[in-house]
Specification:
The complex is a heterodimer of chains A (about 425) and B (about 300). With about 425 residues, chain A is α/β, with parallel strands linked by helices. In chain A, about 40% of the residues lie in helices and about 15% in strands. Chain A is built from 17 helices and 14 strands. Chain A has a six-stranded mixed beta sheet with strand order 3-4-14-9-10-13, with helices on both faces. In chain A, strands 7-6-5-8 form a four-stranded parallel beta sheet, with helices on both faces. Chain A has a two-stranded antiparallel sheet with strand order 1-2. In chain A, α4 packs across α9, α9 packs across α11 and α10 packs across α11. The longest helix of chain A is centred in the first third of the chain and has 16 residues. Chain A starts with 5 loop residues before the first strand and ends with a helix. Chain B has an eight-stranded parallel beta barrel, surrounded by eight helices. Chain B has a single domain, classed as TIM Barrel (Alpha-Beta Barrel). Chain B has about 300 residues and is of the alpha/beta class. In chain B, α1 runs parallel beside α13. The chains are: A alpha/beta (about 425), B alpha/beta (about 300). The structure holds pyridoxal-5'-phosphate. The site of pyridoxal-5'-phosphate has 21 residues of chain A, from α5, α11 and α15.
Chain lengths: ~425, ~300
């Protein structure tokens, strides 16, 4: 894997000059501590992941899904990581790195609040002051996560410009960083942004595939035929794929949010989906060249997904590159199918998944379920699905969204909404 | 007139406005008012949806301008419609420059994506590298040159990634201005100074654009680091009054760049529904104050050897 920050033509460092020294400093720290394990950094990281984060997570056989899809379906249980999602793997790594670098202030952006809460937990754990930027609209949609961040002692700064969602929060965090580069580290939440972030976040998340690869061998005596993961920015995705990239026998599927439709309203600058790998085009966003949702002039479009964690107009440059080379297959699942999959997993396996994660299960149902569309089923006999997070954070929106739709397998929503 | 010539007799006053803020017609008047007020070069912002280097003042200008319908194509028309004789510099973000060739090639909206979306559930085709290869920045630069733009400033394009743009600028005779931050030194500074032409934009302090009540003393140190380079040094970020301008020039700047303080006048006019003519008058008078301040700064400056 590349360490120069380029994945084919993707990646790079498209940032204001004021940030460049900080980025060079981070590059140096990444090479020394993460790649070189200087001062035992990686050892300490692994220890803390175990003791604070609760790793390793199980690779669990999903019995009823295995029966339904007539193959071995295994779940990589990242929902069991402390905080309820894979996000802590990265947040803990970066906050620890910031300490090794002597930075004494942490900033981060958050959309749904998952990365923000993971960063807030890591900062409390490692005793570093933390400020989280969050779009005003997201603050209103995700109150419980705002409280969690505050309970952990972080400040939450509302971002009011633009539409007040993740895209604006990232831009605003970059502005803070440009103002305070000398003492501040920016903990970016996915495999996006300028080099070295995409590589570094992948490395922190690749503990997922490292464990899964060993666990697959232990349980099944072989590597899986396919690995499925949802993809927003792509950090759980790259984490679940990284160690399998060189295993040609394992197919890799990145499941994006198809939103309400893949059609794009250029006039309004809105893409009612977040499927940058499927419908996007090459461009530069938030410091990297990658595939993005943009209009024909190059203005970034507003994205949409039922899951706020997938609601982003870009995607990590390495994932975009792996799709271009054909190593990773990009597919997408829309809001309705994701929500149905959310209910199915809750009922059949006793696991309430994050709405993000539900997209991956939506794809499994589509190609292998009883009503399979006949779409090519390349998943094989042994499938691993990365359960990137649990759905507790999504209960309110899942109830509302289900109420608006006609989903056969869902419980009667009147019980929750009182008929609204 | 080339950018460097604009620094020939006395300090250059370089105001910035976002083109099309808050609407096309008023914006034309506002930019012309800057020239009447004494501008030597004008920086025109071509608004991008994610302006990561801008503070709130210019972010809001960008929003107004985009809402007013500004696009790269409209921007070039705007430049052609402008009645000014001083050199113009386009300030924008790299994605708009990079994508311009694609949008020209396709004319209307992205046909391939419409086609893709017809099959709702299909997988992304692996892209063929050759086919995906962009035409890069060349079409934008060619168009900019043809409407008379003299230079570009691209805040999210560091020297490391600027090769293709520098080449296109050389081909079409445009200057490429780089921003030097207070944290830029050593090798990075050298690499940048090898690429720069026209003038260097000396960022007076860390952070994003925005008017300040005081001007930073990081400026002096930055100017000292640049003393050995034979290219005009224009200082920006935070200058808002004639007195600031004077002080900055006195500390050795060859020019001053002022954005947010002028954009504030446009914003206020827009909010209060002020007659555009009155807004233009206010812009002209602040411009004159800034220009006079800059000129006053030179007369008090210790004499320094002529540039060769
Ligand atoms: C549970 C969960 N899964 C997936 C994602 C998407 O992020 P990424 O694509 O970086 O894994 C998020 C983001 O908030 C999340 O919370």
């Amino acid at each position: 894997m590349s360490t120069d920050g380029k994945f084919g033509d993707y990646g790079g460092q498209y940032v204001p000059e004021a940030l460049m020294p900080a980025i060079e400093e981070l590059e140096d720290a990444y090479e020394r501590y993460v790649l070189g394990n200087e001062d035992g950094f990686m050892d300490e990281f692994r220890t803390r992941l175990r003791e604070f984060g609760g790793r390793p997570t199980p690779l669990q056989r999903a019995d009823r899904l295995s029966e339904r899809y007539d193959r071995e379906v295994y779940l990589k249980r990242e929902d069991l990581v402390h905080g309820g999602a894979h996000k802590l793997n990265n947040a803990l790594g970066q906050v620890l790195l910031a300490k090794y670098m002597g930075k004494d202030r942490i900033i981060a952006e958050t959309g749904a609040g998952q990365h923000g809460t993971a960063t807030a937990m890591a900062c409390a754990h490692l005793d570093v002051p933390c400020e989280i930027y969050m779009g005003e609209r997201d603050i209103n949609r995700q109150r419980p996560n705002v409280f969690r961040m505050k309970l952990n002692g972080s400040e939450v700064n509302p971002v009011t410009v633009g539409r007040g969602t993740l895209k604006e929060a990232i831009s605003e965090t970059m502005r803070d960083w440009a103002t305070n580069v000398e003492d501040t580290h920016y903990v970016i939440g996915s495999v996006v942004g300028p080099h070295p972030f995409p590589s570094m976040v992948r490395d922190f998340q690749s503990v997922i595939s490292e464990e899964a690869r060993t666990q697959a061998r232990e349980k099944m005596g072989r590597l899986p035929d396919s690995v499925l993961a949802c993809a927003g920015g792509g950090s759980n995705t790259m984490g679940a794929f990284a160690e399998f990239v060189d295993d040609d026998e394992t197919a890799l599927y990145a499941v994006e949010a198809g939103g309400s439709t893949l059609d794009v309203d250029e006039e309004a600058g809105v893409a009612p989906n977040s499927a940058s790998l499927t419908t996007g085009s090459e461009g530069i966003l938030h410091g990297a060249r990658t595939t993005i949702l943009q209009d024909h002039d190059g203005q970034i479009m507003e994205s949409h997904s039922i899951s706020s964690g997938l609601d982003y107009a870009g995607v990590g440059p390495e994932l975009a590159y792996l799709v271009d080379t054909g190593r990773v297959t990009a597919v997408n699942v829309g809001d309705d199918d994701a929500l149905t999959a959310f209910h199915r997993l809750s009922q059949m396996e006793g696991i309430i998944p994050a709405l993000e994660t539900a997209h991956a299960f939506g794809y499994l149902e589509r190609v292998a379920g009883p009503d399979a569309t006949g779409e090519h089923d390349g998943l094989g006999e042994f499938v691993v699905v990365n359960v990137s997070g649990r759905g507790d954070k999504d209960l309110e929106s899942a109830i509302e969204e289900t109420y608006e739709r006609d989903i056969d397998i869902a419980p009667n929503m009147d019980e929750f909404t009182g008929g609204l | 007139m080339s950018l460097e010539d604009a620094f020939a007799d006395g300090p250059a006053f370089i105001p910035y406005l976002a083109a099309g803020d808050p609407d096309y017609e008023s914006s034309l008047e506002y930019v012309e008012a800057l020239e009447r007020g004494g501008a030597d070069i004008i920086e025109l912002g071509l608004p991008f949806s994610e302006p990561i280097a801008e503070g709130p003042t210019i972010q809001n200008a960008v929003v107004r301008s985009l809402e007013g319908g500004m696009t790269p194509t409209r921007f070039f028309e705007f430049v052609e419609d402008l009645d000014v004789s001083v050199p113009l510099v386009c300030m924008t973000y790299y994605n708009l420059i990079y994508r311009y060739g694609e949008s020209e090639a396709q004319g209307t909206s992205d046909a391939s994506s419409a086609e893709r979306s017809s099959a709702d559930c299909r997988a992304a085709e692996p892209r063929d590298d050759g086919e995906a290869a962009s035409k890069g920045p060349r079409p934008f630069v060619e168009k900019a040159a043809s409407v008379g733009i003299e230079g570009l400033v691209v805040p999210d394009l560091p020297a490391e990634e600027s090769g293709p743009l520098r080449e296109a600028c050389d081909e079409f005779g445009l200057d490429l201005v780089f921003i030097v931050a207070p944290t830029t030194r050593g090798e990075r500074l050298e690499r940048m100074m090898e690429q720069v032409s026209g003038y260097v934009y000396v960022q007076a302090r860390l952070g994003t654009t925005g008017a300040q009540t005081d001007v930073s003393d990081q400026t002096g140190a930055s100017l000292d680091r640049l003393a050995g380079y034979d290219v005009p040094k224009a200082v920006g970020f935070g200058i808002s009054s004639g007195e600031h301008a004077e002080r900055i020039v006195r500390s050795g700047a060859d020019g001053i760049i002022v954005g947010s303080a002028l954009v504030d006048i446009v914003a206020q006019g827009h909010e209060r529904g002020t007659d555009p003519e009155a807004v233009a008058d206010r812009l002209e008078s602040l411009a004159r104050e800034l220009k006079d301040g800059a000129v006053a700064g030179t007369s008090q400056r210790p004499p320094h050897p002529e540039r060769t």
